[in-house]
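re: ur question from earlier - yeah i can do the single chain one, its not a big deal. heres the input i used so u can compare w yours
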Amino acid sequence: MICAPRAALATVVGVLIEVPVMLVVLIANRSKGWYERI
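and the output i got, formated as tokens:
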């Protein structure tokens, strides 16, 4: 397997994007009732 910097960068960026998105989804699911009131 060739260790391309672009591939490594894509992996790091993917993780950095995925983790906050997962946290936002978890928070949104927990506070659904709060959103429905607005």
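The helical segments are 5-30, 32-37. not sure if urs matches, ping me
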